[in-house]
Amino acid sequence: VTYRPEGEGTMSPTYAQQHRPVGEQEKAVGHAVRAGYLYAGMADVSALTGDMRYARAAERIWHDVVDTKMHLIGGLGATHGIEGFGPPYDLPNRDTYNETCAAVANVFFNFRMYLMHRDATYFDVAEVALLNNALAGISLKGDSFFYVNVLEADGIKKFNHGSGGRSPWFGCACCPSNLARLMPQVSGYMYTHTTDEVYLGLYGSSQTQIALDAGKVSINQVTDYPFDGHIALEVEPDQPHDFTLQLRIPTWVRERFVPGALYHYIDDVKPAWTVKVNGKRVKTDVNKGFAAVRRTWKRGDRVELDLPMPVRFSAALDHVKANRGRLAVTRGPLVYCAEQADNGNAKIQRFFMPKPCDSGRIQQTTIRQGPLKGITKISLPGQEVIENSSRTTKVNMIPYYAWNNRGEDSMIIWMPRTRDMAAASMVSNLLTQSDLGEVRVTHTKAGDSIAAVVDGAVPNSSADQRGPRWTSLPFKNNRQDITISFPETRRVTRVLVYWYQDPGKGEVRLPRDWWIDTRLCRKSPPSARERAIFSSGNDGEAGDIGVIVDAAGSSQGEKGPLEARASFPTEPKSDHDDWKRMKKYVTDFYGLEPNQFNMVRPDAPLTCNRLRISVLPQQGYCMGIHEIQVEFE
Asked: Which of 104, 106, 290, 529 has the most crowded CB, counting CB atoms within 10 A?
């Protein structure tokens, strides 16, 4: 180790995997994307040099990932603050991170482990990460992207760096470009070979020619994989010769959906795969995930591999708190989800599935029109929450990678198994004033409300006129401060601001700059008497510095500041730290985008009980805010 930082957050020794020499590392830690790249490089170095220290370390880390830290979709890095790995089994659904680049890195890492060990177990992980998380990172049109990949959405929370769906671009645009470099590589994952063996990894209609020691062989593959498990191969050697065809038999067709200890099937389905050569069934054993067929091949030989794709039901280890009492639905290598657009256009969290159902009650159809044309949809029995009861209904599900192509709706992978759990899931987890505490501001226009910025209501656009909002009218050119006093000391993970602006050429425009300061006060929030003192000047008249929002959300004091104020000079004294500027995460910035939440995160764990958002207007204009969200660890 040439340099070991000793700070927190982005400067912690584990953030960039600098805590130990790589050959001694045992756990997946830190930023998930750079971790995946590092682990892929370790596998490459061992394969090329024969120094197996790195391979042994990569193997230890791989087990830590697939046994404790990987989502069902192959996603890595559940923790927002560092875009990285959290504690074992900490795998939330609605509030996870799962950066698209981390899924790409997972593909790279596992493909290189597969090349080194010739073990399909690694390829099975790469396939799941590729066809589920990585592929979900880009829209079906190819023009918008996920940075963050959640396993559940309520249709309200703007989880994707301020957006509730895919975005055309990001300030840190690593994910679009990473997908652009991954997708052209996929054809190279389909076939690998030694001097006398041809390995079929990723199945898909294709043609290739491979040079073996005994001569060249052409292979023509025809299949509808991953929607259909029938794979037909035409083998055309330039002359008859012996070699082995190694056919991957995925983990999902056997004991579990994806390798590792985290997930297991809970149904009674026992699918049986088969291999035929020239119409005759061939019996072969599976070794390291491959069925070997060795013979003297000649022109016109035909191989048929059938991998049954019944609908399967999985559960997670009980250690995964987020998935206790839930089940997930898969088919072949694809994870399925239920989306609002296919289920009555109402919140999808109202459904639950008490147990796996028999295959005879499951319908599989191909979508014939619309953005999802050609994709296999499944329908299966479930229960729907209604008032104080429930009723039997059907739940329609699509592959996870295809969700969010028809609007910013609710979606879920891990279905609740009880009515109570479904009812609890229907509640949005957006925080409101009762969660955040007391909110104060240097000025609020008469008729507007500072309470609006913490009411949990998300507008349709920055110019949305339907609900309440906060504006600084009529004061132009003045800095405004919004201060939130939490009921208790909290650990802040991110802050999101949704700006308001007037339609057309109004007086309220997007601001020109903003920043966040925090403070740790070692005293309870001000009492009612202290609030009264704070909201008045020294002579008892309405002060020129503040608006106080009480528990009911009403405001006192509408007189605005004559100039920008950096703090509240009449705030009751207490034992506290000074205001400190929040250091933002390395890829974040104080965004000024309309029609979305603008997100910023601290670069290290941030403990405070007061948070101040300072905003500067454009010259000659006022400014406004629809909503502020503060998220905690």
From this structure: 106
